[in-house]
Amino acid sequence: MQKLLTRVAHANTLLCVGLDPTGSDEDVTRRLPQVIAETAPYAAAFKPNLAFFLSRDNGVQLLRQTIAGVPAGIPVILDGKFGDIANTAMHYAQFAYDVLGADAVTVNPYMGADAVVPFARPGKFVFALAKTSNQSAVQDAILQSGEPVSDFTAKMLADLDATHRNIGLVAGATNAAALGRLRQLCPRNGFWCPALARRAATWRRY
Amino acid sequence: MQKLLTRVAHANTLLCVGLDPTGSDEDVTRRLPQVIAETAPYAAAFKPNLAFFLSRDNGVQLLRQTIAGVPAGIPVILDGKFGDIANTAMHYAQFAYDVLGADAVTVNPYMGADAVVPFARPGKFVFALAKTSNQSAVQDAILQSGEPVSDFTAKMLADLDATHRNIGLVAGATNAAALGRLRQLCPRNGFWCPALARRAATWRRY
């Protein structure tokens, strides 16, 4: 997490620049370095979406090149929403960190702590799904305690972060009340709030 | 789902052969075709684990070759536990079906129906996580209704299958009572029960 905190402090920015390339391989190969160069001064992190690379013939190679082209000091969060048991998660961590050279990943915690911890290597960091802005999701089912599943997940992630110190939450920015509750449950974890910038106009109402 | 049902009927087998290759690239490239050739007569399906391929330098190429080497008529389930919103899921579906040539995928449904439906293309099929044998998972939290989250997920998958007719469940085989309850909730869906063969000795007790 330190690389992200250092970058945030140094560049005075909280913006995470998503890289979800669409279009021909030729266009994308040309445009990605331009986008990175033009947004780097404002970027706290870059976040390539794994699916948008794997769906291309040369996807892994392009993703590796893209990550290598991010200026030193700006962390790269591989958005893979990885969500499998520990042994498999360890192989995804090798892919993200050793094959691709990313600094962090996104993780889907449906299978519990086992699915998260293998990514929490020292020097790396993790953002795990807690409350997304997606509708009709398992996260919104109400537990016996009266709280939604996303609160249960958030508490698990707060506990994990107390040990590992590099586990954050993906917390959708469409519901300010839910976001506030997550912050109460997880006073210390890092939060990544997808599409917050895009929704800034809406947020002014709160 | 028809390709799987036809294969099951034709070969009189319910065995899903997992391909989680470890070892050097050279060994794995040599051994995978041998394993496929020797197990094919008993295989209802092959299930390559995406992580064990991506963690190699030439992983996608090896995975594509491996899938192309599976005898015609035996379906290939790409075990990716994909779990992201619809637009991203559509790109993972392109990867699994168009780039790699798989017949089916595994999916993580934490983000809801949106994360599942893009994989339910006609002629393809999906196994979504409901109740795994993993400990301490979100799936085991108890809802207001008194049922575990995995039951909520199972009902969502039963509803989706009623429309799409090609959505099954990943249902861990360590807990016969839980498996029985899932079958009551989902009388029609296909079930994939990981490691059932390995646990056959235990199962004889039930």
What's the CATH H-level homologous superfamily of chain A? Aldolase class I
Radius of gyration of chain A: 17 Å
Q: Given the helix and strand composition of chain A, which structural class is it?
A: alpha/beta
Give the largest interface pair and sizes: A-B, 48 and 48 residues
The neighbouring-strand order within the major sheet of chain A is: 3-4-5-6-7
Q: Uncertain runs of chain A with pLDDT below 50, 5 residues or more?
A: 199-206
CATH fold assignment of chain A: TIM Barrel
Biggest pleated-sheet summary of chain A: 5 strands, parallel
Helical stretch tally of chain A: 8
How would you portray this structure in words?
The structure is a homodimer of 206-residue chains. In chain A, the strands form 2 sheets. In chain A, strands 3-4-5-6-7 form a 5-stranded parallel β-sheet, covered by helices on one side. Chain A has 206 residues and is α/β, with parallel strands linked by helices. Chain A contains 8 helices and 7 strands. Mean pLDDT of chain A is 92; it is low at 199-206. Chains A and B meet through helix 3, helix 5 and helix 6 of A and helix 3, helix 5 and helix 6 of B.
